[in-house]
Amino acid sequence: MASKHILIVPGDGIGQEVTAVGKQVLNKIAAKFGHTFTYDEALIGHVAIEATGNPLPDESLKKMRKSDAVLFGAVGHPKYDNDPSAKVRPEQGLLKMRKELGLYANLRPIKLFDELLDASSIRPEILKGADILFFRELTGDIYFGEKGRKNDGDTAYDIAEYSRYEVERIARKAFDAARTRRKKLCSVDKANVIETSRLWREVVQKVALDYPDVEVEHQFVDATAMLLIKDPRRFDVVVTANLFGDILTDEASQIAGSMGMLASASIGDGTGVYEPIHGSAHDITGKGVANPLASILSAALLLDISFGLKAESDAVISAVDQVLKAGFRTRDIANSQTPADKILGTAAIGEEVLKRI
Amino acid sequence: MASKHILIVPGDGIGQEVTAVGKQVLNKIAAKFGHTFTYDEALIGHVAIEATGNPLPDESLKKMRKSDAVLFGAVGHPKYDNDPSAKVRPEQGLLKMRKELGLYANLRPIKLFDELLDASSIRPEILKGADILFFRELTGDIYFGEKGRKNDGDTAYDIAEYSRYEVERIARKAFDAARTRRKKLCSVDKANVIETSRLWREVVQKVALDYPDVEVEHQFVDATAMLLIKDPRRFDVVVTANLFGDILTDEASQIAGSMGMLASASIGDGTGVYEPIHGSAHDITGKGVANPLASILSAALLLDISFGLKAESDAVISAVDQVLKAGFRTRDIANSQTPADKILGTAAIGEEVLKRI
Ligand SMILES: CC(C)[C@H](C(=O)O)[C@@H](O)C(=O)O
Ligand SMILES: CC(C)[C@H](C(=O)O)[C@@H](O)C(=O)O
Fold first, then answer.
1. Catalytic site residue B143?
2. Three-state SS string across A156-205, please?
3. Domain boundaries, position A213
4. Which residue from A344, A347, A343 is spatially nearest to A296, judged by alpha carbons?
5. Where do runs of H (alpha helix) occur along chain B?
6. Active site residue B246
7. Are both B100 and B195 inside the same structural domain?
8. For residue A335, is pLDDT > 90?
9. Which of A137, A194, B6, B271 has its CA 20 to 30 A from that of A16?
């Protein structure tokens, strides 16, 4: 019987709606398996700026460090997107959280539920059986290097940086995972142009020597963007830098039918953070139509990775699978064949999942 | 009756085979329309390193500057890809050519020939009618900033940089093109994280004021990587930075069925360079199976953009279309329904195109 403290950090936009459902699922698991989960909430992003002027208030960070795991929503607001000169931005909260908690490895499992074969824009025969686990480096690269302006603001610059130990620690995590799967690892870089990529490739080649049982390939990021769509089944574990991982995993969401299905785990030195890969989606915020399945599946990752509760995690995934098998869909994963009465809103599809746990 | 001097720069791998066919097509056009095209050849990439130690010998550069247009193949060699520490690399020749010739705008039209609807891994009903024109900035960004090592080689860095005038000149080209098309422009950046992207967005917003008739949207690169596959028809003209353009256009090749179909034009201050977006493909080099249609379509772009010969350009595109309509395919665009006798090699499909000009 585990006793755990979970911090809910909804953030902005649909983050509020989807983490509310994720929390219900955690509650149901606790009740059913006899665990004690206690909860607290914290602010981040635009809502934190509005309340405190700071996208990641110290109090939020303190709560994160003290909790056993964080269920996170999303950050972002159109107001800042259209104002490139804004000094304080919601995303700074997210980036600071990643850095301060040492969340250097972002795991993004891309797996299509068979029932969603028709929700994707990719042909079913290309997709069927695709199962990729991305390791995106999360605390380095151009995201965290020095950036600024010169020449009276007429020139902007960003510095991308990687050190050996940063590449090595994520590479080892990716190789370890490959060992428990189909034993294939694809490292993605742009070593034909970029120096950080050359360091990346050097280090991955060296780490590979310790994993002779894992088959390694190196691909350029441009070729990978193409191959992911052309032949997704050729990939098992993919490891890549922060920026390339950001782009490739969003692209790969099409393999899973919709971004609304994709969960992620950010882990590293301390508390793990679990979040959908979708963003704050202000266009549908407050309408009750957001797909909460990515947040629910993030809760499943949380149970498995941070708490070691594998059976509980499987119970969540299986409940999602049954809901899809029963024909229920949110709007984003419905298609023209879906009967209108099977298209549910955020809360209603959450109920269906809860019933099946 | 035009009189023009064309430089053929085959480069590495299948570059040799495909530009040979591209040149035959130019010859046929000259004969048929009564133009005089003279030719020369120059070295670049791995073959140039082997011959002279330099990936872009001065002589090649001189020939490029003196010619009216360059038909280019590809550069790259696996030898360097697996040796991240190599100091001299084929790609340096390509990058130097782009910089020295001031080729700041890389146009990549993505359009599916109807006959290839089934060659793509994307569903035909999602694809049909997709028609995107990419403007990739080609002489700035992380490609050309300072890069190196520090901490005894343990840390690598790359500096991404953009100045206002660099963004403005490509933005204007993209807006001008949008005016001649469906009047929609999507500018792609990562302004929520990257400073060069914030400058990019600022400048595009400003240029947009001069084009009130063009509908503008700004998308993040991660979202765009997803949307390109989910709903390619929503895009008309897309303008983006060097690195993002590299990744997104390779991905978008799946919209056109295969990378083997995609041509590009690099233009700017002087001589224009025309090249397939595919690479040197050493795995199929010398086997006579490479798809030359991208090089042929690059020749069509050359005729149109550098020489202003629109009817001649259309004659080439129409010949390619007829060859596809007649059922001929190279291996990369064939599928399980293609009869074996319709699958042709590089030279044979080139012949079919020549016959139809
Ligand atoms: C919101 C943004 C800063 C973030 C990122 O780029 O990392 C998001 O796209 C993600 O993938 O988590
Ligand atoms: C070969 C490489 C340096 C090049 C690039 O990244 O620009 C290629 O991928 C391209 O798109 O032309």
1. yes
2. EEEEEEEEHHHHHHHHHHHHHHHHCCCCEEEEEECCCCCHHHHHHHHHHH
3. 121-254
4. A347
5. 15-33, 46-52, 58-66, 78-81, 90-100, 124-127, 164-179, 195-208, 221-230, 242-252, 293-305, 310-325, 346-355
6. yes
7. no
8. no
9. A137
User: Which residues in chain B touch residue A197, judged by CB atoms under 8 angstroms apart?
Assistant: 84
Number of domains in chain A: 2
A116 in a domain, yes or no? no
Cα A267 to Cα A274: distance, rounded to the nearest angstrom: 9
Rounded distance, CA B322 to CA A107, Å? Answer: 47
Could you tell which of B44, B92, B94, B298 is best to mutate to test the pocket of ligand 2, judged by most ligand atoms within 8 Å of the CB?
Answer: B94
Ligand 1 pocket check for A76: Cβ under 6 Å: yes
Residues B154-209: pLDDT tens digits? 999 999 999 999 999 999 999 999 999 999 999 999 999 999 999 999 999 999 99
Asked if the Cβ–Cβ distance from A121 to B121 is below 8 Å, we say no
Given A85, A123, A145, which is nearest B202 (Cβ)? A85
**Together in a domain, A189 and A247:** yes
Both A178 and A148 in one domain: the answer is yes
B96: closest CA among B128, B51, B48, B37? B48
| A143 tagged catalytic | yes
pLDDT, tens digit, 9 for 90 and up, residues A52-88: 999 999 999 999 999 999 999 999 998 887 777 788 9
Average pLDDT over residues B334-346: 91
Residue A113, domain member (yes or no): no
Pairs across A and B, CB distance < 8 A: 191
| Ligand minimally distant from the alpha carbon of residue A193 | 2
How many C-beta atoms surround the C-beta of residue A269 within 10 A?
A: 11
A131 is in an annotated binding site: no
A256 at the B interface (CB within 8 A)? no
Q: What is the CATH number of the domain that holds B22?
A: 3.40.718.10
User: Do residues A130 and A149 both lie within one domain?
Assistant: yes
Cα–Cα distance, B142 to B94 (Å, whole number): 15
pLDDT of residue A81: 76
Report the candidate in B11, B117, B120, B61 with the shortest Cα–Cα distance to residue B271. B61
How many angstroms separate the CA atoms of A242 and A141, rounded? 6
Provide the residue count of chain B: 357
C-alpha of residue B237 to centroid of ligand 2, in Å: 21
Residue pointed to by tokens 């008309």: B236
Q: Is residue B222 in a domain?
A: yes
A71-85, A121-135, A213-227, A324-338, range with the lowest pLDDT: A71-85
For A137-186, the pLDDT digits (tens) are 999 999 999 999 999 999 999 999 999 999 999 999 999 999 999 999 99
A244 shares its domain with A148: yes
Q: Within this chain, do residues A243 and A262 fall inside the same structural domain, yes or no?
A: no
Q: Using the beta-carbon criterion (under 8 Å), do B156 and A231 form an inter-chain contact?
A: no
Q: Which residue's CA is minimally distant from atom 5 of ligand 2?
A: B246
Nearest CA in chain A to B278: A223
Q: What is the pTM of this model?
A: 0.95
In tens, the pLDDT along A246-289 reads: 999 999 999 988 888 999 999 998 999 999 999 899 999 999 99
Min Cα separation B90/chain A (Å): 9
* A7 and A50 housed in the same domain: yes
Instruction: Write the pLDDT tens digit of every residue in A20-42.
Output: 999 999 999 999 999 999 999 99
- pLDDT bracket for residue B19 (50, 70, 90): very high
Q: What is the mean pLDDT of chain A?
A: 95
Quote the pLDDT of residue B322. Answer: 97
- Residue where one domain finishes, among candidates A254, A269, A287: A254
104-143 in A: which are within 8 Å (CB) of B?
A: 121-123, 126, 142-143
